[in-house]
Amino acid sequence: MIHAKSFLASAALLLAGCMGTQNRGLESVHQPVVQRSDYLLDLRAAGQGLAQGEQARLAGWFDALRLGYGDRVTVDDPSGTAPGARAEVAGVVEGYGLLLAGDAPVTPAPVAPGTVRVVVSRARASVPGCPDWSRDVTQNNDNHTSSGFGCATNANFAAMVANPVDLVNGRDGAESADPAISGRAINGYRTRSTGGSK
């Protein structure tokens, strides 16, 4: 009876070594995943544009969201009640260094009459399942790559990419490099580190 119990225990340990994430190649099974979230704000319309105080409310909402590069801002006004509202929203958006995008995405609730909906679409990249220590590296008879292989590299890459949408669609590069654009980040760093002097 003792031998049978020890045999079952050793068999369970051997099977435990085979469990977990299997990675039979040199390509990581943990890849960045991009998810999009939409944030909505309905603004009151008055006449041809926004009601008084709505631009300030919009700017406060943008501040709370920490609006920045990579965010896509659109205006949804299906009834066309305030044709000048789009230009007013565009003026607020330009203060954050962005341009108003084209068509708004489909949102779960209809836009109420007399309001204009501003939609901020934000993408986030992450690597689900990392860190992954599910596989015992001491029992690697099939010569698998470790279960957590690629987690650090891909998680850092997902955290550093400026616009996560570029991981999905990519971006066309310019045919020629512009040194002014290439050196913009370095000039910004030098300006901040020296207190304003170049």
Could you tell me the strand content as a percent range?
15-25%
Q: How would you describe the shape?
A: elongated
Q: Would you count the extended β strands for me?
A: 4
Any low-confidence stretches, pLDDT <50, length ≥5? 7-17
Number of helices: 7
Our Rg estimate from Cα atoms comes to 26 Å
Mean pLDDT comes to 82
Description:
The chain has 198 residues and is α+β, with helices and mostly antiparallel strands. The protein has a domain of 86 residues. It contains seven helices and four strands; from the N terminus they run αββαβαβαααα. A four-stranded antiparallel beta sheet has the order 2-1-4-3, with helices on both faces.
Q: What secondary-structure arrangement, pairings included, does this model have?
A:
Blueprint lengths: L1 H17 L14 E14 L2 E2 L3 H12 L6 E5 L8 H10 L20 E12 L24 H10 L5 H4 L9 H4 L1 H10 L5
Antiparallel strand pairs: 1-2, 1-4, 3-4
